[in-house]
Structure formats: C-alpha cells, structure tokens
Amino acid sequence: MRTAVFVEPGKVEARDFEHPKIQEPTDAVIKIIRACVCGSDLWWFRGLDERKHNTVVGHEAIGVVESVGAEVTHVAPGDFVIMPFTHGCGHCAACKAGFEANCFNSKEHGSSGFQGEYVRYTLADWSLVKVPGQPDDYTDAQLNDLLALSDVMATGYHAAASAEVKPGDTVVVMGDGAVGLCGVIAAKLRGAKRIMR
C-alpha cells in the first residue's frame, strides 16, 4: 500500500509500506476513503515547525473499517467511520473530562499516516464515529463535510466551547481560515447573537 511520507521541508512523497495489521486488541485497520491536508501540516512542510524526517503524515480522514481487534465492540468490519485525529481510551480521568487528546493510556495521543490507502487506528472502540450507510450513499460535498468532522470542525467547536460561548453572546473570531470559519459555525450553534470576524 502507498502512504504519504514527510521527507524534508518542502518534500512529501508516496512510499510503499506493508498493509497495516492489528497489533493491540483495541486496534482497527481502516481503508481510507478520503483524507485532507491540515493547516498544521503546512508548518513542518514549510520548515516552520520541527518534524522527524521520513515519517508518515496525515491525521484527517474518513474510511471503512477492514478489521478490528478482539476488544473493539463499537465498530465492525464494513462500518463507514469518521476518524478523529486525537483519541483516547475513554476510561481515564482525562477522557472522562472531555480531554481525550491528553489520554493517560494513549501512547501516541493521536494517529498519523491517514494520507495513505490504509491505516492502523489505535484505541478504536472509543473514538471512531460511525456514519450511517456507506460512502457511496453520499455526494462528494457530503463526504467533504464528513471529512471536516475528523479535525477542523471539532477544533472550531472546541474553541467556541473553551470560550464558553452561550446564547446571546457577542463573539469575535480572529482569522477566517478553515478552523476560524468552523469557529463561526460553532459560535452560531451555541447561540451567539453577534459574530464578528
């Protein structure tokens, strides 16, 4: 299978890898249907942030579950899923408080390698989000909307929730990139009366 690899600033290439396998009973192997580039990917691509050379890239994707470990009960092979970029065990204090990106039991605090054909997704039972039906049931625009839920919309919503936006508030969103625009949507969903950007 092919997966995108960061070679050095300004250079990413597709390389061949072995098909991922279940390594832990909490894993799932997922066939990637659609992935995208995050704004944070551009930091290391442009040399503005450090990243280890020759590492797989991508943390935003949707896909279809191919196989699951013995402890995974929430999803099954054939399920269409959104793959959140940060994920946790769902049982520790950090996860129960809503901070699964800081999961005490996650070795990776998120996965990478989503810009490929298949990926091993850790702690699959807690974080994968099932989507009704199959990818063929959706239009291209709808698939793009679902893809946004793997990172950018969740990040924008987290910003609005962290700012404690409530009905009737006036909200200022600084920056109108993808996350900022999702922050605008989230502020509106949370009841902001006036949103300035």
What does it look like?
- By secondary structure, this protein is of the alpha+beta class.
- The chain has 2 domains: 2-150, Medium-chain alcohol dehydrogenases, catalytic domain (Quinone Oxidoreductase, Chain A, domain 1), CATH 3.90.180.10; 160-197, no CATH class.
- The protein is 24% helix and 24% strand.
- Strands 7-3-5-6-8 form a 5-stranded antiparallel β-sheet. It has a 3-stranded antiparallel β-sheet with strand order 2-1-4, with no helix packed on it. The protein has a two-stranded parallel ribbon with strand order 9-10.
- α5 packs across α6 (178-189).
Please supply descriptive tags for the structure shown above.
197 residues; alpha+beta; Quinone Oxidoreductase, Chain A, domain 1; 2 domains; five-stranded antiparallel sheet; three-stranded antiparallel sheet; 6 helices; 10 strands; 24% helix; globular
- Tally of DSSP β-strands: 10
- Unreliable stretches covering 5 or more consecutive residues: none
Instruction: Please give the share of residues in helix.
Output: 10-25%
Corresponding CATH architecture of the largest domain: Alpha-Beta Complex
Total number of helices = 6
In round numbers, the mean pLDDT is 91
- Sketch the topology as an H/E string, one letter per element: EEEHEEEHEHEHHEHE
Helix-and-strand structural type: alpha+beta
For the termini, the CA-CA separation is 43 Å
CATH homologous superfamily annotation of the largest domain: Medium-chain alcohol dehydrogenases, catalytic domain
Radius of gyration from the CA trace?
17 Å
Beta fraction: 15-25%
Strand order of the largest sheet: 7-3-5-6-8
Shape: globular
Domain module tally: 2
For the biggest sheet, the summary is: 5 strands, antiparallel
